[in-house]
Write a structure and sequence with these properties.
mainly alpha; Endonuclease III, domain 1; 53% helix; DNA-binding
DNA sequence: GAGACGTGGGG
DNA sequence: TCCCCAAGTCT
């Protein structure tokens, strides 16, 4: 249970300053929360918002999404990035239909069995969709608790048992309060206690923040991993997928070859997309998003 | 447990 | 321009 000097001001701040996001609305559904959580894995809210609205309009239930060919789902995913998430969401929808009566399940182990649902997303669904107490530990919560409680500017590169226990120790005991606490801490991390330039002057709990009390010391923990992108297979895959998404007929190989000069890397990337189920090779040497179109171009 | 996996905005 | 960053998951 968080001490009241943290709990009360944070909840007051959340009531006054949180964003009105549709997946938090009173009429939200577990399915809508699941879609939002998967889309928000590594993608900012502003970019997710329009895509989420369109998805919920087209596919308001797991069954609606499950009935689509995977390629159509990948196309609607657009430029959110990491399109394998779209495939996993499609598979998760099918699992809901086949195994859970068309509903998003509410038991943690059932949630964890869904493709694309890991520790974080499972806890987020427990908490935000079903109103149950769960330790929600995403990058925002980790950063806020690191600063507030341990005085470190950033959390360690990987979650360990001690960090999870600390998060659990400040989580309210009751379901409703726990869910509210988690979403409020997340929101504080997203809007105020940001990674690069926190607005401590606007923070409702800066008076009791350990990191502030220590004079905001620079991070001195283990090296934090940096991701390369330019020149990687990931960049090539992205370009290939952009061509396939925008095409509404099977794509001739030369159109794919045009996106990258290095043939070895290009073929490796394309093979990877096929292996992942993101691209479908046709008999005539053309490619398309999996299952779309129906007609086999001759 | 390290590395793979997209995309685009901001400093 | 370059680098960091954004509600992680999977292998």
């Amino acid at each position: 249970m968080p001490p009241s000097h943290l709990h009360a001001p944070l909840l007051a701040w959340y009531a006054a300053s949180s964003r009105d996001l549709p997946w938090r609305a009173a009429d939200r559904t577990p399915w809508g929360v699941l879609v939002s959580e998967v889309m928000l894995q590594q993608t900012p809210v502003d970019r997710v918002l329009p895509v989420w609205l369109e998805w919920m309009r087209r596919w308001p239930t797991p069954a609606a999404l499950a009935a689509e060919p995977p390629g159509e789902v990948v196309r609607a995913w657009g430029r959110l990035g990491y399109p394998r998430r779209a495939l996993r969401l499609h598979e998760a929808a099918q699992a809901c239909v086949l195994r859970f009566g068309g509903e998003v399940p509410h038991e943690p182990e059932q949630l964890r069995s869904l493709p694309g649902v890991g520790d974080y997303t499972s806890a987020a669904l427990e908490s935000f969709a079903f109103g149950r107490r769960a330790v929600v530990l995403d990058t925002n919560v980790r950063r806020v608790l690191a600063r507030l409680l341990t005085g470190s500017e950033h959390p360690r590169p990987t979650i360990n048992a001690a960090e999870r226990a600390l998060a659990a120790s400040v989580l309210p005991d009751l379901d409703r309060e726990a869910a509210l606490w988690s979403v409020a801490v997340m929101e504080l991390g997203a809007l105020v206690c940001t990674a690069a330039s926190p607005s401590c002057g606007a923070c409702p709990v800066s008076a009791t923040c350990t990191w502030v009390a220590l004079g905001k010391p620079a991070y001195d923990g283990p090296e934090r991993p940096v991701q390369k992108f330019a020149g990687t297979d990931r960049q090539v895959r992205g370009r290939l997928m952009a061509v396939l998404r925008e095409a509404h007929a099977p794509v001739p190989k030369p159109a794919l070859d045009a996106v990258w000069d290095d043939a070895v890397q290009r073929e490796r990337a394309l093979d990877g997309l096929v292996a992942d189920g993101l691209a479908e090779p046709l008999a005539n040497g053309r490619y398309r998003l999996p299952g779309v179109g129906g007609t086999i171009d001759a």
